[in-house]
Amino acid sequence: MRKFLKRLLFLDLIEGLVVTFRSQHPKHIYTEQYPAQSPKVAERYRGAPRLNINPENGETLCIACNLCALACPEALIVVGSERNEQTRRKELTTFTYDTSRCMFCGLCEDACPVDALELTQDFELATYTREGQIWDRQMLEEGPRPKQYKF
Ligand code: SF4
Ligand code: SF4
């Protein structure tokens, strides 16, 4: 009889709902509220590439040695350079990096002898087009500008 009444009054269902609603208090929510709150990434996380510039004179640190391009197993880095006839040094002209094919292994970063190329902790790399994933020198020097959301 008791079992029948329990079924008739949906007591099991109500008990279950009580448990559910009790756990829905905001203090029990563990989901990261991205993009309102930025997640903490691991210290050694490798994300968006950056081509560093000298903060004192604004010139690129890259010496156009092409070692990063040679180290990349995906061959996705293209370094353009020309020789300065006065200094006899190679100077960087263009630099492209196809982030859509990158596996963020860090081999290019390790190969760079002057720490010009760096994989930063920026992780917001999504774009609406495939072409947008190919970063040029300006983009690599300035870094990504992810959309800022207002709440
Ligand atoms: S992180 Fe790896 S895959 Fe990406 S560009 Fe560097 S070497 Fe290539
Ligand atoms: S290895 Fe470093 S210095 Fe050489 S081309 Fe790549 S980013 Fe420039």
Task: Quickly list its features.
single chain, 151 residues, alpha+beta, Alpha-Beta Plaits, 3-stranded antiparallel β-sheet, two-stranded antiparallel ribbon, 23% helix, rod-shaped, binds iron/sulfur cluster
Describe the structure.
This protein is α+β, with helices and mostly antiparallel strands and 151 residues long. It has a domain at 49-142: 2-Layer Sandwich (Alpha-Beta Plaits), CATH 3.30.70. It is built from 5 helices and 5 strands. It has helices spanning 2-8, 11-22, 67-71, 107-111, 137-142, and strands at residues 49-51, 77-83, 90-98, 117-119, 134-135. It is rod-shaped. The structure holds iron/sulfur cluster (SF4) (2 copies). One iron/sulfur cluster binds at residues 62-68, 79, 111-112, 114, 116-117.
Which percent range fits the helix content?
10-25%
According to DSSP, the number of beta strands is 5
Strand order, biggest sheet? 2-3-5
Task: Describe the global form.
Answer: rod-shaped
* CATH top level assignment of the domain at 49-142: Alpha Beta
Order of helices and strands: HHEHEEHEEH
- The low-confidence parts are none
Question: Beta fraction of the residues?
Answer: 15-25%
Largest sheet: 3 strands, antiparallel
Ligand set:
iron/sulfur cluster
Structural class: alpha+beta
> What is the CA-based Rg, rounded?
26 Å
| Number of helices, counting only DSSP H or I runs of 4 residues or more | 5
CATH architectural grouping of the domain at 49-142: 2-Layer Sandwich
Separation of the first and last Cα atoms: 54 Å
CATH topology of the domain at 49-142: Alpha-Beta Plaits
pLDDT average, as an integer? 92
